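Explain this fold:

***
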Amino acid sequence: MTKPITMIWPGRPYPRGAFWDGEGVNFAIFSEHAEKVELCLFDTKGKNEVQRVELKERSDLVWHCYLPEARPGLLYGFRVHGPYRPEEGHRFNPHKLLIEPYAKDIVGTPRWSDAHFGYRIGGKDDDLSFSRRDNANVMPKCRVIDQAFAWGNDQPPDIQWCDMVIYELHVKGFTMQHPDILPKFRGTYAGLAMAPAIEHLQRLGVTTVELMPVHAFLDDRHLVERGMRNYWGYNSIGFLAPDSRYSASGQISEFKTMVKTLHKAGIEVILDVVYNHTAEGSHLGPTLSFRGIDNASYYRLVGDNPRYYMDYTGCGNTLDMQQSCVLQLMMDSLRYWVQEMHVDGFRFDLASSLARELHEVNQLGTFFNTIRQDPVLSTIKLIAEPWDLGEGGYQVGNFPLGWSEWNDKYRDSIRAYWKGEEVLIGELAQRLTGSSDLYQRSGRTHASINFISAHDGFTLHDLVTYNDKHNEANQEDNSGTDNNHCWNCGVEGETDDPAINALRARQKRNFLATLLFSQGVPMLQAGDEIGRTQQGNNNAYCQDNAISWLSWELKQQDQDLLAFTQLIISLRNQHPLFRRRYFFQGTPIYGGEVKDIVWLNPDGSETKEDDWSQASSHCLGVYFAGGKLIETDGRGRRLKDINLLLLLNAYHEDIEFMLPKFEEHDHWDVLLDTQDAIGTPDISRYKTGQAYPLGGRSLVLLKQA
């Protein structure tokens, strides 16, 4: 902005935020309890406030104006006047420049100081005191954008749930050390859209990338003062703005180009979103946006003492989904990312908090009902992290139709099984076959998002390398969960012992193969396919460095693991039995005598009913009866039976597993054996009735055709 705005028109209360219509910019901001709202305009560098415009129009609790002389690129913020009475829930302070909730572009990061707090730091009254320090020169600024973009014929890949392979990645960490990406593009949206990154995803065989939070977020003051940052990004301050730190160009179009490029490669984009809390923290946190715009409307406050916040998130506050302004912001944000940014779905952090009405979790709450009836949002991919930190927040299996869920019961059962812990065989069977005990009653066939590791916890490599967490680098007294079901295979940390390293490599193959051959939707954590380590850190949320970034300098064992992962994803894609649309019934198929699934003991006999309640690290087999596959050979088309046998042995000793005979087939072809470094054994064919030498701690997949 180089000269003052001279024309100020009334404008409209909708759309919210700053909207460039091609001729001017409309500004609209909600505040029920404000007494006065000022729009602050800044120079092109955002350093100097050059003009204040009072929003004198107010319609349905929305303050608005229209500036016909304003253009995209204009930097702005708000100051909101009203009562400062924390004991009543009001925290207005016009000395604080505020980020507007609907900002589509947020420039810069805050330079932390006491000026960001609405009260006097160090005062005897804490947040009941009032600060007159101005923070504008150290605050990020909102920027007006032009939403136009040449999407061309971009279309969502529209991958069916049963065909999905999700890959959870961090935009920065994935490419930050990639040698084939130019340094200026590493760690950015542009870097993720480049050929080396996309080719890795395609060769691996993933269909969907799940991006860790890209909504504009802030680094906590206590982390910045320790030389760290909130690397994971679960600290949102803007729900419509992609974080500018991941942009090489500083333009919103870079994010759109990334999505368009991934779509062209056949890869979906899902965003991990944090709608449960904001970066403003507890009652002692800074005043950055919502708190200063209308604290009592945006946050859940303690009923008999609204000075304090209800905290179901462990982050100091919880957004109040019962308030229409909050619900509208969430819906507008979600629709914006789908319609304007073309993303394909969302994974909701601590989703149970979004379902809380009063204090209990209501799985059919207003938030979920609103999404279900929305013509845009009801058709996209919706994934819940089905818990929060409040009472009754653990809701695995209880989300409504249309939702899938991160299934930590799958994670814990599979980890415990391969570690050698006692696991009920019935529990293991449920997890391998899609967790029908959790989802069938609600009619959700592909609701289980299966995973072994995710950003929160050990990497796959560290899961088999450490017995204990090693989070000392966080400088937080080694905080983090101890419930990991991990096993170091005999030595804590890295070792040169070839026997231990071979066992660890086999355990990684066991985990990955189990994941890809289970019913449900598999999710890989980025880097698990190439042996990524966080040096035993299972809570690396603040490590924006080589601890968290992927290393692309692959040793031979890493290359072998990558080849193995490509193989098992390829096998999953080749065999529809791993991608069933419906749960197994345990009943004969096609009018024959063979059931669609049969559980087997090592002697080849069928598992009995009493065995399901036995707790032990068990060796078992699973026979999957397939349908008819129409295949073409040189002489025309023919029908072919495809039946698969999965053998799992969590014992440390080898076991002779008798290969069963079903129907008229007389042999089994070995497709994969995790005893081999890349999964392909030397001997590939065995006769029915012959014993297969099932190695200790190994998994085998055979095909009968």
Observations:
- The longest strand covers residues 36-42.
- The longest helix spans residues 498-516.
- The radius of gyration is 28 Å.
- The CA atoms of residues 235 and 279 lie 5 Å apart.
